[in-house]
Amino acid sequence: MRNALRFFFAVLAIFLAASVAHSQGGPNHPSITFEGQTYTPASILTRNMGTNEDQTTAFPPFKIIGNVYYVGTRTLSSYLIVTPQGNILIDSTYERNVPVIQHSVEQLGFKFTDVKILLGNHAHGDHMEGDAAVKALTGAQVEVMAEDVLDLQKMKPGGKEHPIDKILHDGDTVTLGGTTLVAHLTAGHTHGCTAWTDKVADGGKTYNVVFGCSLRSSAPLSPETIAEFDRSFEVVRTIPCDIQLGDHPGEFGMEEKYARMKPGAPNPFIDAATCKREINMEEAMFHAILAEQQKTGSSPR
After folding, report:
1. Cis peptide bond upstream of 263, omega within 30
2. Range of the domain at 244
3. What pTM was computed for the model?
4. Residue range 244-257, pLDDT digits in tens
5. I need a labelling partner for 294 at 20 to 30 A (CA). Which of 57, 115, 226, 251 fits?
6. Do residues 268 and 261 make contact, with C-beta atoms less than 8 angstroms apart?
7. CA 94 to CA 217: how far, in whole Å?
8. Could you tell me the CATH number of the domain that includes residue 148?
9. Would residue 121 count as lying in a domain?
10. Span 76-115, pLDDT tens digits
11. Is residue 215 part of a domain?
């Protein structure tokens, strides 16, 4: 009887894992081993998104470095960049999370109405669905990458039009109160996927901060998407980086680094040696997906 129960629960676990992978759009193949850990498209997606509770529950807001603060949830990143002339917010996430982000900003002692510019990493609902709500609350100027405009225009939570006040292109800068962010097109995950870079002063030194955009591949890969990823992997390796951030905390080990933040101790987020870790893992997965696609004869390349 005991063995029968064990077998039943083992089968049930496999079924549930497959169901989760299917519902999230991530298959359990191909698999890669990177730095001793096995990844599949499903496991990467699960790491990034977590549970519904993870997506909507605030992570304790904190100062990352200089004028850069984390104000997002457990698995959906949102960043506040504070300047003397108002603040910049990167990623509004889901519309339902806007009050959560607002509360985090206020917990840090800042006014949400001081957000003057709203940026995003890419045109998916878990990163930019809340743009209209943020604009309604703050009056912020919403600046978006040209290649993501069409997808953003389709993003209408509650029937609201997606605000677009300024269209940006690869290499454009966004400046406010002495802070300048540079937009780097790193397409593939979406056509307008954007890595933002910023030079941040802290403790008498200046650091290159990269707010990376997801490099997660989906299948099937079209010739256009393959070309986008090929270019993006080259681009991200040329970007100077001392502090790697991203649109999901799991991409840069935020929780583990946060736990190591202690008064007087080195800032664990300053870690140039691991800046390219996520890039290397995602590129390996991209090539594995492409190889599997070619092997089955479904590759359009």
Report:
1. no
2. 47-295
3. 0.90
4. 999 999 999 999 99
5. 251
6. yes
7. 21
8. 3.60.15.10
9. yes
10. 999 999 999 999 999 999 999 999 999 999 999 999 999 9
11. yes
